[in-house]
Automatic annotation (TrEMBL):
Cleaved signal peptide residues: 1-30
Family statement drawn from the similarity comment of this UniProt entry: Belongs to the peptidase S28 family.
SUPFAM superfamilies: alpha/beta-Hydrolases
Species of provenance: Acacia crassicarpa
Annotated protein name in UniProt: Serine protease EDA2
UniProt cross-references to Gene3D superfamilies, sorted A to Z: alpha/beta hydrolase
Length: 494
């Protein structure tokens, strides 16, 4: 995920409730979508449901003596449910406020298979915060491991509740799990850790590989941009660095980012602004004006500033404060808390540090490893460090030893290099190839801004590639659901 679905770059492993997942995040991690985009999404009625449900969740699943609980929000959509034995689709929300169940391609699949759809908000995000303060000490229960147990506990809770509604004392429905980006990783990891609780998983643009220095992210942006656009982007970065040294205050004001006092924050903001266009299927938004300006001998910095303010901040809706370390220090529980929360996960578990490669980089060399480590220390205090080795040992990275997991990626998505792109037995992997195929294209269509109802693929430059991937996804779901054997005690998940 930007750090905004990882800082957008991330964040683009999100934005704060974005990525076009069940809602999108607005962190600047590169993974998720921004709040304004999310609000437009909600306002236009593009949710299957926004009716909140609640249940009591365990705060610490790994403590034998801490029995505290917190209220966790979830949603259910039963319009397509084939009573009583239809499947249940669990759609995982991630590093963002989860405002409902999106009307994307998962809804199409639910209709086809007669499935109920449920979605659980990630602990700490949105309205599912266990604490009134997000101090570093209070964030100690925020991790993917705890989140996976949340999903397992919720799965059992919901199945029991459904059985009561159906007036049956035993029996289970077949479950299938879905997620995009960081939730895509959670989807794969859920099948890995709890294979007895799901018939299979779809891991769309799933960032299953924790990476300390994620240079491949920037390299993919260059590849996706093509020669002319890449050259223009690199020249823009050089000019920005020169002017930053000459009069940084004036330059930052040009981009509407005068509040970003730390130069690294500012350069990260500019790098994510470019990456977002490729991550979410809108390459021409950044490439066309820069290439034209370069050919005409016009000021590239002015052209880029116009793109950043009109598209990245204006249309796409990313807040400049997302990149401000002073903002990230805010421990109050607010609508913007996802920024701080996702950075905590980045700084403790997964890293995904989108650093500039040593050669041929698009982003500034100021966005380096030291910048990320200093941010973690500055925002969360001493001793905070992402142990990616332990994370990859625990989950397996791209060598994940799971089964019945579908991995999908968009060919232009810089995040795909943290996903499993090589198929293995019982874990097929499909890359959807087209000019504007980005993050979660198989579920969201393209481009993802504006979002398409039911993930319509008609605007993809190669809609047939999307249809073929979706046909394979459907075949796997059909097969794996059929292999969940109904027994007297419920379903046998094999």
């Amino acid at each position: 995920m930007g750090m905004s679905m990882m800082r957008h770059g991330w964040a683009l492993i999100v934005a704060s409730s974005l990525l076009l997942f069940t809602s999108f995040p607005t962190v600047s991690l590169g993974i998720s979508p921004p709040r304004s985009l999310l609000d437009r999404f909600s306002a236009s009625g593009r949710y299957l449901t926004t009716q909140e449900q609640w249940f009591n969740q365990t705060l610490d699943h790994f403590s034998p003596y801490d029995h505290r609980q917190f209220q966790q929000r979830y949603y259910e959509f039963l319009d397509y449910f084939r009573i009583p034995d239809g499947p249940i689709f669990l759609v995982i929300c991630g590093e963002y406020t989860c405002s409902g169940i999106s009307n994307d391609y998962i809804g199409v699949l639910a209709k086809k298979f007669g499935a109920a759809v449920v979605s659980l908000e990630h602990r700490y995000y949105g309205k599912s915060s266990p604490f009134k303060s997000l101090s570093t000490e209070n964030l100690r229960h925020l991790s993917s491991k705890q989140a996976l147990f949340d999903l397992a506990v919720f799965r059992q809770y919901y199945q029991d509740s459904l059985n009561l509604k159906l007036n049956r004392s035993v029996g289970e429905n077949p479950w299938f799990v879905f997620g995009i980006s960081y939730p895509g990783a959670l989807s794969a990891w859920f099948r890995l850790k709890f294979p007895h609780l799901t018939c299979g998983s779809l891991a769309s643009s799933a960032v299953v590989l924790s990476v300390y220095n994620f240079t491949e992210f920037d390299q993919q942006v260059g590849e996706s941009a093509g020669a002319e656009c890449k050259t223009a982007l690199q020249e823009t970065t050089k000019l920005v660095e020169q002017r930053l040294a000459e009069d940084g205050k004036k330059l930052k004001s040009l981009f509407g980012a005068a509040d970003l006092e730390i130069d690294g924050d500012f350069m990260y903001f500019l790098a994510d602004a470019a990456a977002t266009a490729f991550q979410y299927g809108n390459p021409d938004k950044v490439c066309k004006p820069l290439v034209e300006a370069n050919k005409a001998g016009e000021d590239l910095v002015d052209a880029y500033a116009k793109y950043v303010k009109e598209y990245y901040v204006g249309t796409f809706g990313v807040g400049v404060q997302t990149y401000n370390q002073e903002h990230l220090k805010n421990t109050a529980v607010t609508e913007d808390s996802a920024d701080r929360l996702w950075w905590f996960q980045v700084c403790t578990e997964v890293a995904y540090f989108q650093v500039a490669p040593a050669n041929d980089s698009i982003r500034s060399s100021k966005v380096d490893t030291r910048y990320h480590l200093d941010l973690c220390k500055n925002v969360f205090g001493e001793g905070i460090f992402p142990d990616v080795t332990s994370t990859n040992i625990y989950y397996g990275g791209t060598n994940i030893a799971g089964s019945k997991i579908i991995f999908t990626n968009g060919s232009q998505d810089p995040w795909r290099h943290a996903s499993k792109q090589t198929p293995s037995p019982d874990m097929p992997s499909y890359t959807v190839t087209c000019y504007n195929c980005g993050h979660g294209t198989d579920i969201r269509g393209c481009p993802q801004s504006p979002l398409n109802l039911e993930g319509n693929e008609k605007n993809c430059t190669n809609p047939d590639a999307v249809r073929k991937a979706r046909a394979k996804i459907t075949d796997h779901i059909d097969l794996w659901l059929s292999q969940c054997k109904d027994t007297d005690d419920g379903f046998s998940f094999i």
